Amino acid sequence: MIRLRPRRVGALLLRQAYLLSGSPARVLPLFAWVAIDVVLWGFITRYLNAVAGARLDFVTVILGAVLLWDFFGRVMQGVTMTFFEDVWSRNFLNVFSTPLTIGEYVSGLVLSSVGTSTIGLLVMVSLATAVFGLSFARYGVVLVPALLVLFLFGIALGILGCAVVLRLGPAAEWLIWPIPAVLSPFAGVFYPVATLPGWMQVVSWLLPPSWVFEALRALIAGGAPSWPSLGGAALLALADVILAGWVFARVHRYAVRTGLIARYSAESVS
To answer: Model-level pTM?
Structure first.
């Protein structure tokens, strides 16, 4: 049975809060890049609406998809950025020489991501609503499971990314940043999955976000979303979280057993 001590998890959150409060350079990315995306895609969709007339509301279809995918990226980066703070400061020996368990450490990463991604989401929604008139109320209650699936999948990929860097060393950090961009063609963020060739569709249906965007597109088109599909996507995303946590725990045990964690440096690739 895994026992999590709230005070230890809270200590990790407090450390992250101190890092953010003491460095405006860490606070600015929480909302700056999100705001840029909203402004850029907002004007693009406004232009497309002017060209296409009333046949399709591009603000809802495209800008809404951009914001949801940005939310997923914020969640993933919320986990990895907290982990990278320990990578950049070579702090692993200090952290894991304490009684802190791996479950408590990962929980701290996840809760840190909750805080940072919430800030990003609030900025996105406020700016998109105030400037471009995007109303998330149109999605109705479907938005709740949609955000949950994206959040869980973002957490899963964030933990998995941390495991990759812990195993391969800080030089592997570049493998993590492009993950949302690499997955976006398969997830059907801006177009139906049926648009993809067969082999890409197989990959797409293994990704929980693809089910989310298909359900939202059906809703915008005037149809009804498939609740069983959303439920299945949530279960798939939860399974991904469990699998990612298992992989991270295995990598951590390997790093401790082989002494890799003690000589962790930019050259640690074996």
So the answer is: 0.89
